[in-house]
Amino acid sequence: MQQLHTVHVDGYYGSEIKCAPHMVFIAGGSGMTPFLSILDHLKALADISDREEMSTDDSELPRTLWVVWTCRDLEFLEAYAELLDAVNRCSRWKCKVWLHFTQAGTDDAGYDTEDDDTQTEPDDLSEENVPRSQRFYPASLHHHAFSGHNYMLGLPLFLGTGLGCVLLILWVFQLKMFSAKSFMRRAVLLGAGALGAVLGATIALYVVQRWNARKDTEGNNVTMEVAMGEMEVVGLDIPSPAPPSTPRSMPTPAQSLLGRRFLIEKERPDLGFRLRIVHKEIRENFGVKAEVALLVSGPADLQRDALLQARELVEPAFEVHQKSFLL
């Protein structure tokens, strides 16, 4: 049977893989990237064995796989939902996957924060990697898109104020003498100018808002037709030159697979609780002499917590393989 000895990735895991009977993967954010390569490697070995109808030795493939992945980029989870599902359903081993989707600012656990300056991968908190909002235009045109009416408030106010000032100037030119009556007229003109400014600004702002609302309605209708057309093209397996503009309310196949196959928890993982579950099940089913490899990749806080929790578990003990993002 052909063996795959290396993982072709840009990073610290481009070396020979040493499989263990029981493998536990704990990753934060983009730290899951090398582990995804390992899982893909193991799935490839299992597929080769199935195609050749050969029985694989126990030392070549693990007997259990455990995955704990916390990430704040939902699209990152969706991108590898198919691989995780294939590994989870493989009959060559027993697998359990825990996925945690966390958003920025929920707490300061630091499992996938941008404060860790040892990361070499793009941080998951960047504007390009946060879960996309419901937009119908490509990312390259975001800075051209209309973002609201607030930046146009100065235009109607300027027009209204200018209209009031012009009216005030015209009335002042009609004053022929500076008398008590003229002073009263000045007060009246000042009030009229202020009223004209307010009315002009209100009318101009109302017209602008109505005009933009009508344009947005027409544009959304056209964009929805384009999005539906792209979905039909994707269904026919015809590649589209433009990125999909499918809104969030219409799930893609990856989104549907992720939500259907996995329970996504919206909180930080309790590593102590997870590791105790893994330790208890391995001990009950495989004995106290089972060989367990714990592979941790991600920010420093995640590695430290996993290491501290693993030290408390013995018989069987976890053999920790700690990987950081140091260059």
Name given to the CATH homologous superfamily of the largest domain: Nucleotide-binding domain of ferredoxin-NADP reductase (FNR) module
Main pleated sheet: 6 strands, parallel
User: Which CATH architecture of the largest domain is right?
Assistant: 3-Layer(aba) Sandwich
Order of helices and strands: EHEHHEHHHEHEHE
Classified by CATH, the class of the largest domain is: Alpha Beta
What is the count of helical runs? 8
Strand order, sheet with most strands = 4-3-2-1-5-6
Shape: elongated
Q: Helix proportion of residues, in percent?
A: 40-55%
Q: Tell me what portion of residues adopts beta-strand conformation.
A: 5-15%
Keywords: Membrane, Oxidoreductase, Transmembrane, Transmembrane helix
GO molecular function, one term: oxidoreductase activity
InterPro entries: Fe_red_NAD-bd_6, FNR_nucleotide-bd, RBOH/FRE
Transmembrane segments: 151-175, 187-208
Report on the structure:
With 327 residues, the protein is α/β, with parallel strands linked by helices. It is built from eight helices and six strands; from the N terminus they run E-H-E-H-H-E-H-H-H-E-H-E-H-E. The chain has helices at residues 33-51, 74-79, 81-89, 154-173, 180-235, 253-261, 271-286, 300-311; strands spanning 22-28, 64-71, 94-101, 264-265, 292-297, 318-323. Strands 4-3-2-1-5-6 form a six-stranded parallel β-sheet, sandwiched between helices. Helix 1 links the parallel strand 1 and strand 2 (64-71). Helix 1 packs across helix 3 and helix 4 packs antiparallel against helix 5. It is elongated and about 110 Å long. GO terms for molecular function: oxidoreductase activity. Residues 109-129 are annotated as: Disordered.
